[in-house]
Amino acid sequence: VAISVPCFTLIEKQLGGAADSPHAIRWVITGLASIGLVLSWVVAGFGQYLRWLIIILIYLIVSQVVFLNYIYNFSYLYSALLVATVILSSVYFDQFKMVVAFQATIFLFVLQASFLSVNTIVDIGVFLSFYAFVNTIVVFIIYHAIRRRKQLAEAMENLEQTRAKLLRSNKELEQFAYIASHDLQEPLRTIRSYLQLIEKRYGNVLDDTGKEFFDFTLDAGERMQELIKALLQYSRVNSEKMKREVLDLNAVLDNVKMDLQVIIDKEAATIHADDLGSLYGDKVQITRLVQNLVSNALKYRSEHTPVIHITARREDNTKVLSVADNGQGIPEQQQQNIFRIFNRLHTDDKGVGIGLAVARKIVQNHGGDIWVESTPGKGTTFHCSFETGQEVQ
C-alpha cells in the first residue's frame, strides 16, 4: 500500500500520460476496494481478523483518491473528496496511534502526489496548509473521543465488576444467613432442653432468685429461637425458587382469613374486601405477603374494634394492592424504618420485627414497591404495587 502511488503513477505514464489515457485500471482497483470495504463491514461479525482487512482496504481506497487528485491535477472536486475521505476514514480507528500512523502515511502520499503534479488547479501550498490544519483538528477531536470512550468503557467495566461483587456478596450473605440460622437451631434447642431438665430436677432446691435467673435464661433462649426462625424465614424468601402463575387474589385472601381465623375471632375483627381480581406471582410468597399485612393490622390494633379494608386497583401497567386498618398508626419519624429487618415499633412487643421486612422482600422479588401512609391514632394503609401483564385483571 505504501508504494501504491508511485506504482500507479508509473502505470499511468506507460499508458500514455495523465491527461489522455483511459483510467480503467484505476477505476477497477478503486471499485474493487470499495466493494471489498462494504462487504467486510457486512461480515465484520464473523471474525476479528476482518478488522485488519478493513484497515487495508481503507488505506487502498484513500491512496486511490490521492492518485485521482494527481491525475486530475488536484481539482477542487477531488481535493474536497480527498479531505472528506481522510476525515471519514480516520473515524474508524479506535486507537490513537493507528490514527496518527494513518494520517502520517496519507499525508506522505499527498506530498508525493503534489510534488509529481506539474499544473495543479488549486494552489498546492494553500491546499496542503488547509489539509494539515483540518486534519490536525480532526486528530485532536478523535484523540479526545477515544480517550473519553476508554474512560467510559473503564467506568462501565468497573461498574459491572462492582455489580457482580455485590450480587455475589448478597448471595453469600443470604446463604450464610440461611445456613447459620438453620445450624444454630439445633444447639439452641439442646441448651433449652437441658435448662428445662435442670429446672425440673433441681428447681426445688433453688431459691426465688435462682428461679428468677432460670426464667430469664429460658425466656432469652426462647427469644433467640424466635429470632433464628425469623432470620431463616427471611433468608428463604431470598433463596426459594419462585413459581409464578395467575393468582386469584380473592382466593388468596380467603386462605389467609382461614389461617388467621382464631386471631380474627379473638379480636372480633372485621375484614372488608373488594373484588381483588388476579395477579401474576408466586402463590406462596403472595399469600405470605397478604398474611403478614393482615396480621400486622390485627396486632397493632387500637382500643376500637379492628376493621380492615383490602382493595386493589389498576394504574396503567401497575396493580396496587392496599391494606388499610383503623389501628394505632405509625409516627412519621418511624415510617422510614418500619421495613427494616428486626425493627419493632414498640420495645415491649413480643415479635421480632420480621413481618414487614419479609413483605418488602416479597414485593421486591415481584419487581414492585411497597410504601405506607399512616396517621397516629387513626390507622395505617400499606400499598403494594406490582407490574402487570395482559392476563392480570
Describe the SSE topology.
Blueprint: H1 4-14, H2 24-42, H3 49-71, H4 76-90, H5 96-116, H6 124-202, H7 208-239, E1 244-248, H8 249-259, H9 261-267, E2 270-273, E3 278-282, H10 283-299, E4 307-315, E5 318-325, H11 332-335, H12 355-365, E6 369-375, E7 379-387
Parallel strand pairs: 2-4
Antiparallel strand pairs: 1-3, 4-5, 5-7, 6-7
Helix pairs in contact: 1-3, 2-3, 3-4, 3-5, 4-6, 5-6, 6-7, 7-12, 8-10, 10-12
Protein described:
22% of the residues are buried. The protein starts with a helix and ends in a 6-residue tail after the last strand. It is built from twelve helices and seven strands. Among the domains are: 4-122, no CATH class; 244-387, Histidine kinase-like ATPase, C-terminal domain (Heat Shock Protein 90), CATH 3.30.565. The protein is 64% helix and 12% strand. With 393 residues, it is of the alpha+beta class. It is elongated. It has a five-stranded mixed β-sheet, with helices on one face. Strands 1-3 form a two-stranded antiparallel sheet. The longest helix has 79 residues, at 124-202.
